[in-house]
């Protein structure tokens, strides 16, 4: 009874916190199609100005991969009114910081400034959109930067090509089959005119959402947004191609050799639906149940109890068009990757045929309540969530209501969705192994 009361108390506390954190916002559109979202938060004298563009790796040509990520770097080079090399100096001189990131589906830029520098931030983002300088010196400079990033973060990292190894085998026609960092050969071969054409096509106001979040005067912010962004002309609407993958109906195997590892990894990969679907959210819960934390089923069984694995994990890699569900393991000692796969499959069969316990279900509910609170705990997090829910999900109010979807997921749904997607005939087994030439040394 004491444990039950404690669990109830935690649930009520988290539920109350989540409810109290309802995010308020205002939206409007400029005539050029730019969507603007304003969220006021006076808890600290800071303001975040961010722009998300609906362009990612999936919008690239197969022989010109890496463009979206390349632009994440290139558009800090300078503009008509911000000289080359001055962008970061202006930001730091005014007490701010900024960054950007790219995925398969979108590119996101943001600045964090003291609240008295909002006009500067709005002007800088309008400059990035209206007056970018895309010349050969900038392209050549950022080409070297991207190559170094790839060497450090991917090529020289143990298991650094894991996601790419899965994607290139799981997708046959969809652009998800390559990674955002793309091919260095493609970037080397690209002409300046190709970069300029990419910018003209995708970096347009009607392919973007501007979010301002933090401490600011609402009327003044609107005035500045209109002042600096309204003159930017609307672009030709982006109509991305649709790609449909044939269902996986028979298990197949693939191999990837990595010169940076000594211990092989086995990966079971399943293709899953869009992150916008209810099924994808149920799969989030499935992955948490299997491998989130040391008390999760796979970790406790294979790492703690049987000591068969050095590491084990499951995660739902959700994206706008499709997702991938990955379960991976590193065998310990004399254990084989085949034995790990067998043990993992046994746990999945249990989920497909039995309901998880009430206590495990409550643990999942508590975790997702906590994740919801954490995701909206900072103004930076709220700004990115607002942009993502608007652009990628088509429902900005999910920032407040998505938690209700997770709350409504039942134990029966967890069983049924596991049975629907995580079957041997619907997967690839990837053997991620040490490179042969290294193994022979």
UniProtKB/TrEMBL annotation:
The keyword Transmembrane helix does not apply. InterPro entries: Metalloenz_LuxS/M16, Pept_M16_N, Peptidase_M16, Peptidase_M16_C. Residues 36-175 form the Peptidase M16 N-terminal domain. SUPFAM superfamilies: LuxS/MPP-like metallohydrolase. It holds the Pfam family Peptidase_M16. Residues 1-20 form the signal peptide. The keyword rRNA processing does not apply. Keywords: Hydrolase, Metalloprotease, Protease, Signal, Zinc. Residues 190-367 form the Peptidase M16 C-terminal domain. Belongs to the peptidase M16 family. This is M16 family metallopeptidase.
């Amino acid at each position: 009874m004491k444990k039950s009361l404690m669990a109830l108390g935690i649930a009520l506390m988290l539920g109350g916190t989540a409810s109290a954190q309802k995010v308020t916002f205002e939206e409007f559109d400029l005539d050029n199609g730019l969507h603007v979202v304003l969220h006021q938060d006076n808890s600290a004298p800071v303001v975040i100005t961010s722009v998300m563009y609906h362009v990612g790796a999936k919008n690239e040509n197969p022989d010109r991969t890496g463009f979206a990520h390349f632009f994440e770097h290139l558009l800090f080079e300078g503009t008509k009114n911000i000289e080359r090399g001055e962008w970061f100096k202006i930001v730091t001189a005014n007490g701010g910081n900024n960054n950007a990131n790219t995925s398969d589906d979108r590119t996101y830029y943001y600045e964090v400034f003291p609240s008295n520098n909002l006009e500067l931030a709005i002007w800088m983002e309008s400059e990035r959109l209206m007056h970018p300088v895309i010349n050969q010196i900038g392209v050549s400079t950022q080409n070297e930067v991207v190559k170094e990033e790839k060497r450090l973060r991917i090529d020289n990292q143990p298991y650094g090509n894991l996601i790419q190894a899965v994607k290139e085998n799981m997708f046959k026609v969809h652009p998800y089959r390559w990674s955002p960092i793309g091919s260095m050969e493609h970037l080397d071969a690209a002409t300046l005119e190709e970069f300029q054409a990419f910018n003209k096509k995708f970096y347009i106001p009607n392919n973007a959402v501007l979010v301002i979040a933090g401490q600011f005067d609402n009327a003044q912010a609107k005035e500045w947004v209109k002042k600096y962004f309204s003159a930017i002309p609307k672009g030709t609407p982006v109509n991305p191609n649709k790609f449909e993958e044939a269902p996986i109906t028979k298990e197949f195997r693939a191999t990837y050799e990595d010169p940076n590892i000594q211990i092989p990894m086995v990966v079971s990969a399943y293709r899953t639906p869009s992150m916008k679907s209810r099924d994808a959210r149920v799969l989030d819960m499935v992955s948490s149940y299997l491998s989130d934390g040391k008390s999760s089923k796979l970790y406790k069984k294979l790492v703690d109890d049987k000591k068969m694995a050095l590491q084990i994990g499951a995660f739902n890699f959700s994206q706008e068009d499709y997702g991938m569900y990955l379960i991976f393991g590193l065998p310990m000692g004399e254990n084989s990757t085949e034995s790990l796969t067998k043990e993992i499959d046994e746990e999945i069969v249990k989920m497909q045929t039995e309901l998880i316990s009430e206590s495990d279900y409550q643990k999942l509910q508590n975790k997702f309540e906590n994740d919801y609170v954490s995701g909206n705990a900072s103004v930076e997090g709220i700004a990115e969530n607002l942009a993502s829910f608007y652009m990628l999900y088509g429902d900005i109010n999910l920032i407040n209501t998505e938690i209700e979807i997770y709350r409504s997921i039942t134990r029966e749904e967890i069983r049924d969705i596991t049975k629907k997607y995580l079957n041997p005939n619907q997967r690839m087994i990837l053997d991620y192994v040490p490179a042969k030439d290294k193994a022979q040394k």
